[in-house]
Structures are given as structure tokens and as C-alpha cells.
Inverse folding.
């Protein structure tokens, strides 16, 4: 692999000015100077097809104090912001993945004629096996008992267990 020639001397050959400290500068419209090495590295990073070249650019940018985020890191940041917003607004969350109800759809399961519970988001309910799902429902009941003194009758527990089984049978993941 041929290394990128991003030396100050090479950048100066490209017509860029070098200040008294040896830093290559470019003048902005407002007359202020900023480093062109970062700009050049970003240009190389964006045009690179090989991952090895991108990695080399990423390392050089980090030396300059610039971080290039992966798509996965960006998605994680978006998820964090949505969850933090939900937390600040007082939304509760999925007991498995922790995502808040302000942006994630929950799986609602009836335990009597007028009440339901939703300890899991739809995604986690579908992905987890039946026994694992049951653990989260029982965990929510324990939280209710501690926080509100509310407990479910045996009939209500049997009702939600039956409804969970029915929901898992429909997705064939029992």
C-alpha cells in the first residue's frame, strides 16, 4: 500500500501557504487562517475506496483532534439522544434494551379486561424466547409491588402468561 503524502512540504507544493511555524494555512473569506491539512485529509478520506486508506486518514485526523464517526457510532449517538430526551420527559423504558417509549413502540399484553402491561418493546418481544419474555413481565410486576404496592392476582398472572404464549405462537418463536 502506497502511503498518502500529506507532509507539509507536499501540501506547500500544491500552492498552499506555510506560516512561520510550518503550518499550512488557507485564508477564509473573512480573512482568518485555518489548517488545510485537516481539509485535505477529509477530502482524501471521503474519496478513498480502500478501507486501509480511510483508516490511515482517520488516524492522521485524530492526531489533528478530528474524529470521524462510523455509521454505527452515529446511530448509537442518535439512539442515546432519543433515550435521554425520553428520560428527561419522564418516559419509562423497555426492560431489556432500555429504549424509551417516547420513540420506540411497546408490546402491550392484557392481564385483565381493562388493564395491560408493556415491559418490552415490540422488537425485544419478538426477538426473545418465551421464557426470557416471562422474566421481564415478572420483573415489572415486582417493580409495581415495590413502587406502588400493586400486586396481580393468580388469575391475572395466568392471563398475561397465556397472552404472551399466544403472541409467541403467532410468531412461531415459542
Amino acid at each position: 500500500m502506497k502511503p498518502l503524502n500529506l507532509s507539509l512540504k507536499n501540501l506547500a507544493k500544491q500552492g498552499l501557504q506555510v506560516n512561520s511555524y510550518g503550518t499550512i494555512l488557507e485564508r477564509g473569506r473573512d480573512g482568518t487562517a485555518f489548517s488545510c491539512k485537516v481539509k485535505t485529509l477529509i477530502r482524501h478520506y471521503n474519496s478513498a475506496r480502500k478501507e486501509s486508506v480511510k483508516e490511515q486518514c482517520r488516524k492522521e485526523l485524530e492526531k489533528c483532534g478530528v474524529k470521524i464517526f462510523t455509521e454505527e457510532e452515529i446511530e448509537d449517538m442518535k439512539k442515546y439522544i432519543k433515550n435521554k430526551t425520553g428520560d428527561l420527559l419522564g418516559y419509562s423504558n423497555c426492560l431489556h434494551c432500555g429504549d424509551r417509549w417516547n420513540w420506540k413502540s411497546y408490546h402491550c399484553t392484557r392481564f385483565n379486561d381493562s388493564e395491560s402491561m408493556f415491559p418490552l418493546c415490540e422488537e425485544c418481544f419478538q426477538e426473545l424466547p418465551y421464557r426470557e419474555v416471562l422474566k421481564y413481565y415478572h420483573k415489572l410486576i415486582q417493580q409495581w409491588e415495590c413502587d406502588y404496592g400493586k400486586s396481580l392476582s393468580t388469575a391475572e398472572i395466568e392471563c398475561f402468561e397465556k397472552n404472551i404464549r399466544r403472541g409467541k405462537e403467532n410468531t412461531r418463536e415459542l
User: Anything to note?
Assistant: Confidence is low (pLDDT under 50) at residues 28-33. Helices lie at 8-13, 36-47, 51-63, 71-88, 122-127, 130-148, 154-170. The CA atoms of residues 29 and 132 lie 60 Å apart.
